[in-house]
Amino acid sequence: MRDILIAGAVALILSLVGTPLAIRIFARRGYGQNIREEGPSGHHDKRGTPTMGGTVFVVAAILGFSAAHLATLSPPTVSAVLVLFLMAGLGAVGFLDDFIKIYKQRSLGLRSGAKALGQLIVGAVFAVLVVRFPNGYGVTPAVPRLSFLRDFGPASIGIVLFTIWVLILIVGFSNAVNLTDGLDGLASGATCLVLVAYVLIGNWQLRNSCTNMLGQGCYWVRDPLDLAVVAAAVLGALLGFLWWNAPPAKIFMGDTGSLALGGVLAGLAVTTRTQLLLIILAGLCVMITLSVIIQVGFFKMTGRRVFRMAPLQHHFELSGWAETTIVVRFWLISALCVAVGLGVFYVEWMPNA
After folding, report:
1. Fewest CB within 10 angstroms: 123, 179, 334, 353, which?
2. pLDDT confidence bin for 109, thresholds 50/70/90
3. Angle of helix 186-207 versus helix 159-180 axis, rounded to 10
4. For residue range 235-247, what is the model confidence (pLDDT) as tens digits?
5. Is 264 inside a domain boundary?
6. Is the residue at 303 inside a domain?
7. Which residues have C-beta within 8 Å of that of residue 219, sequence separation ≥ 6?
8. Is residue 288 part of a domain?
9. C-alpha to C-alpha distance for 7 and 69, rounded to whole angstroms
10. Residue 24 belongs to a domain
11. Do 192 and 232 form a contact (C-beta atoms < 8 A)?
């Protein structure tokens, strides 16, 4: 528990202090946000707001995690390092995308194919490595099986299908957070709530680990405590960033932050064996992504639109809702999704208690 508190506190302080410094540096260098012309008219006032703020909380999270291990003189675990690698790798892809937008002064950065290729390369490395490195009990960070509240199914799905499935999770959720990041503080606040869930899940799995006490209902998770430390470090860093990203935002996370956050959520889901549970926990991001799929699919089939604009948050903007109203109400929806997900997770364990 001390590791979790140290990681979260250090990351929070670094992000709180580092974000205004980044705002000044990025503003001085002209690293401002470009706004789509077809977007809501109110967004044009945000043109020039510093972006790439995700670099701050990614670095703060890694430093917070490192500080926790230095303070406790404990080595980092493979599971945690792999999740941090996934976060940093996808953050690097997003950083390149953001930098091209700024350098060429346009709202589009990397070509979609190049961006997807970067995500796939980082995700494939993670997927291959995550099924290796068994501990003294033979438990690896993940196994080639599907999972909901724990691994299920009679047998392995095979490394090839597992890799494809993990890539779907990584690309899907990194893009889902990216689509959610359309209003000030929306993606950062919603992701904070999901990270709280993973701090609790990691701590619960530690207390009921099969490596500590073999019994009915225990969890075969390799490094539950360190995964909770990762979630706490990213949570603390993101809360510090949210202080400056809340409406009206002084800085945006950019693709650097949104891809990194989607990566860390997918990585935590794979390593805590809660892959399908993430769909419930991050239900807001899933709904927003579905709104885009529905809008595009329906338009291609009929030439008509279901929503005034997609993603979903912009539909409500064009319907006359104030930005802060949308953000707060969507945070509430995210909180409900997290509460349902945690309730399902706990209820599954209760009959075995």
Report:
1. 353
2. low
3. 140
4. 999 999 999 999 8
5. yes
6. no
7. 150, 205, 208, 209, 210, 273
8. no
9. 8
10. yes
11. no
- Single-letter amino acid code for the residue at 237: A
Residue 351 has pLDDT above 70, yes or no: no
- Enumerate residues 6+ apart whose C-beta is below 8 A from 286: 176, 279
Cα 261 to its chain centre, rounded Å, is: 3
Residues forming beta bridges with residue 151, ordered by sequence position: 147
pLDDT of residue 305: 92
DSSP class of 151 = B
User: Which of 175, 151, 177 is closest to 162 using CA atoms?
Assistant: 151
**Could you tell me how many residues make up the chain?**
353
CB-based burial label for 148 (10 Å; 0-12, 13-18, 19+): middle
Residue indicated by tokens 């077809």: 38
Q: Which pair of structure tokens corresponds to residue 111?
A: 């070509």
pLDDT category at 353 given cuts 50, 70, 90 is very low
CA angle at 96 for the pair 92 and 99, rounded to the nearest 5°: 130
Helix (H, G, I), strand (E, B) or coil at 66: helix
Dihedral angle sign, alpha carbons of residues 347, 228, 1, 334:
negative
Number of domains the chain contains? 1
Domain that holds residue 234: 2-143+150-274
State which amino acid sits at residue 16. L
The burial of 35, by beta-carbon neighbours within 10 Å (0-12 exposed, 13-18 middle, 19 or more buried), is given as middle
Give yes or no for residue 106 having a pLDDT over 70: no
Q: Which residue stretches of the chain are H helix?
A: 2-29, 54-72, 78-104, 112-129, 159-180, 186-207, 224-245, 254-271, 277-281, 283-302, 312-318, 323-349
How far is the C-alpha of 302 from the C-alpha of 311, rounded, in Å? 19
Q: Which residue has the tokens 């290729």?
A: 117
C-alpha atoms less than 13 angstroms from C-alpha of 246 in its C-beta half-sphere:
11
For residue 259, the Cα-to-chain-centroid distance in whole angstroms is: 7
